[in-house]
Amino acid sequence: MSRALLLVALASLSPWAAAECECLWQGSFDEVQAKTDLVVAAEVASTKGNSIDLNTAQVLRGTLPPVELRVWLAYEDHCRPPTDTFPVGSRWVMALTRIDEKVSGGFNPNTPNYSYGRVGDYMLSNCGGYWLKWEGDAVTGNLVDAPRWDHEPKMTPVLLELIAAFVAGKADSAALLAASQEDPALRELRLNTRAFLRGDEE
Predict the structure, then answer these.
(1) What predicted TM-score, i.e. pTM, was given to this entire model?
(2) Which of 70, 117, 157, 182 could form a disulfide with 138, with the two C-beta atoms 3.0–4.6 Å apart?
(3) More confident residue, 42 or 202
(4) C-alpha distance from residue 165 to each of 2, 40, 61, 63, 174 (Å)
């Protein structure tokens, strides 16, 4: 089989990767989250095709669907991150947009596990800081005043409780920026002091 025919065959098997997406950068998390329908802190429970199911630990804004929280990722030229960005067991803060209508060509019966997504589920955009990596009690990512298209900028981890306060309107972008630029040694001292006061350490 020639290389050209091989590429055509692979494209037919991989409709979610058949075309490049084009979109303008919408901003860091602090700028984009308010425009979405649901913001959650959650763990990836399973993956199938170009979708992931989440176990939600905390709803920062919005209402969970009555069934599983399914998020649809990269498909054709729709600007979404690839599924392997979010392995099973990893934890994230995600700002999600609800899928409210069917899209023409959004389902291929030859690849039933790959589609634009079901009405009532959610999708995750790649065109801004729509997700943050959550480890321990803090998050990192394109949170505030970060370079465009860099989803893993160098920064000091910011406490999830501060992210929740921001989404709830109880903190501002300046507080997020200050926390993300905090000296790591001072942050570690502050966290250790809090742990000591709670009696977590001898």
Answers:
(1) 0.81
(2) 157
(3) 42
(4) 56, 13, 11, 17, 13
